[in-house]
Design goal:
Length: about 230
């Protein structure tokens, strides 16, 4: 049977990802076409675009899943070597960082959705659980974010003393607690509820109000404040 493989260089100019971006703009390209530009070359009898499509199929065309993959996991797709894997991870990380506003442009946080936008790029894609704190000044502008702990798939140990030490170090006038559920389950556990109560009580003593506790997942969030669960 005659091999139907045709390298990208032999395609019509408007079909080549690089030329398509140059002539029609970035929005005209599919995810696979953008990926093909990143990895630059194919492998064996596959073009860079074929290889990109295969990689995206392996994660059900979910860029969120792709963003969570390690170098080793990416290399499990035949044709993706270490250099290509590192390039993909670096590009996705840049995309996430681009979404984060610099401090001088940050606006006051007035609701749970605002807080979620600040933290979701740090927590939503993680394959393990982490606990973070957002720190605020009197104008409700986020002045810092700190990671308190990192754990496993189902939980992480949180020391409330570290939370308040961090708040004091950053001169915070209020804080928001945040942690992720890698499973995607938005329901707070009994441990989540107990921990929230404990830290809220500690905040009252320290005169550092705890405004909310967010449970973050890839597809959304749960706000203790919105649900009337703050003590």
């Amino acid at each position: 049977m005659e091999n139907s493989f045709t390298p990208i260089k032999a395609w019509a100019e408007n079909d080549r990802p690089r030329e398509k971006l140059k002539n029609l703009g970035r929005k005209s390209l599919s995810d696979a076409e953008l990926m093909a530009i990143l990895i630059a070359t194919g492998s064996g009898k596959e073009s860079a675009l074929d290889l990109s499509r295969k990689l995206l199929r392996s994660v059900d065309n979910d860029l969120g899943k792709l963003g969570r993959m390690t170098i080793g996991e990416l290399q499990k797709t035949k044709g993706i070597g270490q250099v290509k894997a590192i390039t993909i991870i670096a590009a996705l990380e840049l995309g996430q960082r681009r979404k984060e506003l610099p401090k001088e442009q940050r606006k006051p946080v007035t609701n749970s959705a605002d807080a979620y936008e600040l933290i979701r790029h740090h927590l939503a894609d993680l394959p393990h659980e982490e606990f973070h704190v957002l720190h605020f000044n009197r104008a409700n502008i986020c002045i810092a974010q700190t990671k308190i702990s990192s754990g496993g798939i189902t939980g992480t140990v949180v020391d409330s003393r570290l939370i308040f030490k961090s708040a004091i170090d950053h001169h915070s006038t209020s804080i928001i607690l945040c942690h992720n559920h890698p499973s995607g389950n938005l329901k707070p556990s009994n441990e989540d509820i107990h921990l929230t109560r404990k830290i809220v009580e500690g905040g009252k003593i320290m005169d550092i109000p705890v405004m909310d506790h967010l449970i973050v997942t890839e597809r959304g969030y749960y706000s203790f404040s919105d649900e009337g669960m703050m003590p």
